[in-house]
Protein 1
Amino acid sequence: AAARANTEEARAELGRRERDRETEAADMEEKAKNLENRLYDGSVTSPKEASALGDEIAGMRERQSLLEDQAIELMVEMEPLDTLLEAAQAEGDRFASRRCSLEQSLGTAEAERDTEIAQADEARSAAAAKVDEDQLELYRKMRITYGPDAVVEFDAARGGGCPVAMSAVELDRWKHLPAGTVEPCVDCGRLVLKLS
């Protein structure tokens, strides 16, 4: 950004100088035309005065030519800066387009996430409505201690489902409980859920 600002500043300065040269050259041309009109309109009768006007006109034309040459040189100096600024503008446009695309993608992703959260909240509320209030309160307390692992599914093949294997007697008892049973594990304290 600093490099672009420096380039823009340098380009603006060259442009100002070029316009100044063109303005001054146009002034010289206007003055020279006025003197030429005076020289040829018959109002100058003295050869000495005519010679002096001719010299003054020649000097003005020479100055005009010099100013025009300087203006052209300044335009030539501006060309590479214009190329750099056009490239910077094109790059800025590409970044702006990419940013817009990313913002749209982000907006879409956020909307999808919000929809998923709302659906999960609805599903959780529906599931919570089916659970006994005492068990729900117990679950909330367990979440404080165990986080997302507050409830584990009973798995007879793994020895219960908790990080700590159930004793053989406890495992056998759980095998005979009905589906839907939820009780705290006597070994680890988590809630154990028997689905089938």
Protein 2
Amino acid sequence: ISCSLVGSEMCIRDSCKTNGTLYISKKVCAISAIALDKANITKFVVNNDNPSFKAIDGVLYTKNGTRLVRFPNNYSKSYTIPTGVKTISQYAFRNSEQLEEVIIPDTVTKIGEGAFYGCSSLSKISIPQKIRAIRPYTFFNCSSLKNIKLPSKLQILGSCSFQDCKSLKTINIPKNIESITSVSYTHLRAHETAAN
């Protein structure tokens, strides 16, 4: 089953419950961060005449390829983000429950709020050194994540960024950190913090 977004609709705001391939017409220019929460997407296909988006190997990007907009939540267990991507959009990988590993290139300088929210099988990820802020809910309920190394120049650790990461045992807090919200790692089963 596929869902083709056509006609006069310019923005996908409401929940789309498609299964399989999601076709995006040339007229769609905006997609709400939560519009695809109830979808079960295996890949995106974008009309070649769409001025805002394109699909790279089934993953949704902005037309210039510098921002990862949305990862199909039923795509694969491992994914390597292409070099040249600068931004991972908010909730881009949300509820990709079978995803186990993400390789992020050094070109990425911003990871949006809730980017890996609900990726319950995610166990391997490295954060590029250029990242200065971990936004709220970035790794919320990543219950298989066992360890993570934060960038040495990280300045901000947002609220609930590691909440419900039940397998996470160690977080190394960089010495240059400027702000840690009190609930950044609430509900960790066990954690140790140390300055790098």
Protein 3
Amino acid sequence: SISDTLEGEDSKSNSSLQTASDSKKAKIAIAKNSDDYEFRWLQKISHLPLSEKLRPKDIREYVGQQHILSQEDGTLFKYIKEGVIPSMILWGPPGVGKTSLARLLTRTATNNGATYQLVETSATKANTQELRSIFEKSKNDYHLTKRRTVLFIDEIHRFNKSQQDLLLPYVENGDIVLIGATTENPSFQLNNALIS
């Protein structure tokens, strides 16, 4: 009976050693898979500029603008939480995160139940023909899939008056959500109708 007890304790200790060994092997396998994933991820982003590598992936990682993005009383955060993106003009110096904010707003609103698609362009390369094709595609997408288009225009202050006027009816009708980014004061560079 003493030998049976000792054998039982030995089998328990062997069993706990086996479990600990299996647990350690599982942790090593997870770490190895994690290392493989991290290595593949680093290879994938190795060609990107540093600013793109460091760009926030989630709205909570975005630094600054807490008066509009805070979860407690941020006006913009309340919209995004409801899955709504209002049209807006983002004004600030280069490199402060205007493009990042537009991408994060679209991603966060989409994660909260709405369906948005972000189309990025720059006023330095976009012409009226390209804008009209974006508007037609966004109308068709909305009618077919109920997916709204967020049109992000970088350097929007470079558009002339007629190009800005072209945007106006599509923004007013809700065919697109316009997010414009500018380094210049919008009060002097953009049409009053577009600002309102």
Protein 4
Amino acid sequence: RAGEATLGTERHFFETGVARRVVLRGASEPVTVHRILRRAAVQTRFEASAQRGLLPFVGRAEEMKLLELELQHAMKGVPGQVAIAAGAGVGKTRLVAEFLRIARSRDCQIHRGHCESNISAEPLQPLLQMLRTLFGIDTVQQPAEASDRLAHELALLGDDAQRFSETLSAMLSLQPPRASMNKAAASPQQAVQALQ
């Protein structure tokens, strides 16, 4: 069980039972507690806000036009990158969410990663999240099953992709594919260097 103050701003990361009022020894007033049932499906604060309902998206026509232009270039095979920088709370996450909605409507594959500043993250977490979605690897899969899935997906990409098998296995904390269990990189950082 956890109290309101303990859950605080992280409440949306958990599914909880019905709130109960409990009198604690030494406390003058009852406190509200929740039984934590499981981890919620939301991964970010923005997802939690979206579930509660968002206000209409307005005032970003110029930024959206620039993002859509970059999307058109990407859909023609022109490599590029976009950086969105602004102060806290001005709508960067919402702008990206609206842009990704447009990209999905145009049948673009979306592979997205994130880090919440107040929750412990693994090294290179956004990159690893994108790789997991790209290769269809679920974090609850057994390592051998996930390793086989990675090997299958790399085989579909061709011989060029096969040379990254050990490095990707190490990055994703999987056992290397059974056929080649030798020198996988020791850390995600070393694996990124190997991919460069």
